[in-house]
Amino acid sequence: MALGARDALGPALEHSLIITRDIGSCAALAPLSDTEILIGAHPLPDERSLACGARLLEWVRTLPPAVQPLFLISGGASALAEVLSPGVSLADLQALNREGLRSGVDIGVFNARRTEISALKGGKLAAALRGRPARALFISDVPGDDPAVIGSGLMGPAPGGDRVVREVVACVEFALDAAAAAAAALGLAVYRAPQRFADSATRVAARCAHELSLQRVPVCLWGGESTVTLPPHPGRGGRNQQLALAAARLIAGHDELLLLAAGTDGSDGVSEAAGALVDADTCARVSLAGLDADDCLARADAERALKASGDLLYTGPTGTNVGDVVIGLRLSREDAIHGSGPPRVL
Which terminus of the chain has a lower count of CB atoms within 10 Å, N or C? Predict the structure, then answer.
């Protein structure tokens, strides 16, 4: 987003403050004298996140009068930068985040709880502008694409109003548009789910596997954000790997079906993988490795199973985050076996 702003604004851009989780994604900007890069923590905030939040609030309060600020907000901002309300400790914040990540609570409800203990979120940063005009562009990874929810409302509307112009410039539909265009370029017909998913990973897996088995087109697309309720001592993985492994059980033995579940930011939970691409033999490969898919799902240890089956997907950081995508592919038996040419409609 910062690179895009630099391309668009050119010399009119006087200074950039970038708060991110990965210095590598800002390699092109790091040497520039007009750019300040801070590293926060994600998905669990720590002392770095508090330092980032304090610097952001100071930056807003000390803006020169003639400068019009531009805010670029994406998913992940909730953890990367924070200023706590009086009486709230870092331990309190981390406990709330752990509970939210563990329980699979709706992201809107979770962000509302984070807003309650924040001196930055829920429009409070916008209020610090004290009526100054500003513009905020959002990349959304939340249901409804509401600026009051994205990043826990890091640049949401201030109580009593403000002079911030807000615009969502990307969301999961953009990713699905790109996938549909790529399929069309290959001459493949597409089924696209009419609504985003927002349910547990296992239920989303059941829905996607069922719809994939019923459709008579080669490509099926879904987008949204699933949830996972973690056990007391979870293993490794993320919601997309949990979804993919759950789907693998349902398409086992169906040689014509494949399913990919991945995070558009290139990461998934505490794993380095973006997600996984599973097929009819995934569970068989898991079993051959001496593991049990059901047990790995129950322990939220999908990464272990999918690593053993060779189905993990690694992309590295993509530089954007519009939620998760699930892509189903339905091949003819001949194409599934021989992999020759573009898939044909069954």
Answer: C
Beta bridge partners of 118: 84
Report the DSSP beta bridge partners of residue 137: 72, 167
What pTM was estimated for this model as a whole? 0.85
Residue 132 has pLDDT above 60, yes or no: yes
Question: Domains in the chain, ordered, with CATH?
Answer: 2-170 (3.40.50.10180), 173-338 (3.40.1480.10)
Q: What is the mean pLDDT of residues 192-216?
A: 96
Q: Which residues contact 261 (CB under 8 A, 6 or more apart)?
A: 205, 240, 241, 243, 244, 247, 275, 276, 324, 325, 326
State the Cα–Cα distance between residues 278 and 249, nearest whole angstrom. Answer: 10
∠55-61-62 over CA atoms, to 5°?
A: 85
C-alpha to C-alpha distance for 151 and 8, rounded to whole angstroms: 24
Residues 6+ apart with CB under 8 A from 195: none
Other beta carbons within 10 Å of 288: 11
